């Protein structure tokens, strides 16, 4: 029960972080990065160094983390990086 509570808390903090950076409030940072990777053929452009670094670190912890974390149907309520608005 405490484990589930902690996981829910971590996910909510992840979603908050995504919202702070103009993302969909119901999407995690990993999902957003995974969508960006998919849009650019599996590689985040060098013009987005923070995104690249974050995806690289997550990939070292868990191979293909961002690609596996993509949440279909999420992202459209964000201000930036929405499926219809890549920037």
How would you sum up this structure, described in words?
The protein is mainly α and 87 residues long. It is 55% helix and 0% strand. It has 4 helices and no strands. It starts with a helix and ends in an 18-residue tail after the last helix.
Major sheet size, sense and barrel closure: none
Would you tell me the overall average pLDDT? 91
Question: What separation lies between the terminal Cα atoms?
Answer: 39 Å
Q: What is the number of helices?
A: 4
Q: Can you count the beta strands?
A: 0
Fraction in beta strands: under 5%
Rg for CA atoms: 13 Å
Principal-axis shape: globular
Unreliable stretches: none
Q: What structural class is derived from the secondary structure elements?
A: mainly alpha
Q: What helical percentage do the residues reach?
A: 55-70%
Order of helices and strands: HHHH
Task: Give a brief description.
The chain is built from 4 helices and no strands. By secondary structure, the protein is mainly α.
List key phrases describing it.
mainly alpha; globular; about 55% helix; about 90 residues
Fold blueprint:
Elements: H1 2-20, H2 29-39, H3 49-61, H4 65-69
């Amino acid at each position: 029960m405490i484990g589930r509570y902690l996981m829910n808390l971590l996910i909510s903090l992840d979603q908050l972080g995504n919202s702070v950076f103009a993302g969909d409030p119901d999407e995690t940072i990993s999902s957003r990065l995974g969508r960006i990777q998919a849009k650019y053929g599996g590689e985040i452009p060098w013009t987005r160094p923070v995104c690249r670094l974050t995806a690289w670190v997550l990939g070292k912890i868990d191979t293909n983390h961002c690609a596996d974390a993509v949440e279909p149907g999420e992202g459209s309520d964000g201000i930036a990086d929405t499926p219809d608005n890549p920037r």
